[in-house]
Structure prediction request, 310 residues.
Amino acid sequence: MTDFRSIETFLWVVKLGSFRGAAQRLNTTQPAISQRIAQLEREMGVKLLNREHRVASPTPSGRQMMIYAEKLIGLRSEMMAEVGDRSAMRGALRLGVAETIVHTWLPRLVKSVNEIYPNLSLEIEVDITPNLTARLLAQEIELAFVLGPVSASGAHNRVLCDYPIGFLASPALRLGAGPVARQDLARFPIITFPRKTQPYETVRALFNGPDLPPIRLHASTSLATVIHMANEGLGIAVIPSAIVENELADGRLQLLDTDLKLPPLTFTASWLASPDAVAIERVANLAGQIAQPSVAVDGATVARHEKTIA
Prediction:
């Protein structure tokens, strides 16, 4: 009898285009993947995959099989989510996270996942949005919290939160007494997000004027480094003020008064359409609740919310 494991294996070989990719996705070996596919082809009595130059593509019978495989895997996921209790949701979810989220509400999300889905583990990677988006589209991660939305065929996005960007400096720079003009800001090094990110390009354009001195723009892939440099008075940090609430509270940093307006950072939970995306959608929606500080997240709230996405 054909089992779900063989069908799921076939589905991921086709989606990822290789036995190696399917082995990584299913946490097994390439020989095990080959064995499952061979068994499935014997049971179906037809060839399902073409294997040429290490690329696996479905035969005409395989394309027909994919239609049913997606339906079966999708129904299984829905059944487990609706009928089983939360502990039945198990496995590992590969999650990519922009560092701003790490410094704000990610710990609360991990705690909630541990409580609500005790058998679901998170494999977390922290990187900049362009890299995480590329990894999501390559299906190397399954869910990404990034500056979104992700515009790609089959991509789903759920808005999580908006973070205003502020100009933050140590009191040692003596810039906190009143409004600070752009020319005065430009006298100091500006410290912000890394190159190739939306905030970096926005800040660079803001200070790229003929009436301004050449900007000294320090970029870092580590927000912890940006915050430390600002604390030490090495420049003005241009980052979301939400990630330095402690520093603002104890006076190590000041939010400068300036008429310069930067667009807020809008973060989304982004994932690709998949027949077994129930766990992904549950975590994405849980993140959406936690990211909004006015929304309480408890068992009852989540249970009500789950009914709306099943």
